[in-house]
Amino acid sequence: xxxxxxxxxxxxxxxxxxxxxxxxxxxxxxxxxxxxxxxxxxxxxxxxxxxxxxxxxxxxxxxxxxxxxxxxxxxxxxxxxxxxxxxxxxxxxxxxxxxxxxxxxxxxxxxxxxxxxxxxxxxxxxxxxxxxxxxxxxxxxxxxxxxxxxxxxxxxxxxxxxxxxxxxxxxxxxxxxxxxxxxxxxxxxxxxxxxxxxxxxxxxxxxxxxxxxxxxxxxxxxxxxxxxxxxxxxxx
Length: 236
Description:
Number of strands: 0
Shape: globular
Radius of gyration: 21 Å
Distance between the termini: 27 Å
Largest sheet: none
Number of helices: 9
């Protein structure tokens, strides 16, 4: 859009630029997104979803580690959406979803890292952002934590990723299953087997989620963050 606008400003008279440039930009970019970028991104998303499912079918430990490591990155680029129908289909056909269990585990990794930043920082604004993002992530919404903290402090992102690799591998080893469409801390009931009630799967939920949160918290606290770090959106 930047390059298109620069070119339009050179060829369209300034007298009518304010009216015609936005209209032309919307028309051209909308067509580009619908006809070129949209299909391309959809195809890439499908390939990623197929690759993740292939890894899970090959080995749940490896697949879980890969999924939990890359899912936050997929969210940033909007490439995670093709995974949602797979989760819905698993729940509808089998009554449970391992993929959604991994999604829940990585939420705890993100929450643990952001919570460590929240407690460690002396910056009032960052503390407020981190506290709200931690609560939001525990409730299953990750964008505030990802965009508000992780992308601004890359080392925190790396520590959270390491914790999520651990959590995904652990969840895969425990064969953790999710019986609903919710996750994180508030979605604990989705890990209770509807046929038999609380069984080993629920205890595996407590183990995997608690340890992932703890590992992310410790890594971030020890090496992931300090107040001397400059956020990526601040001029040094």
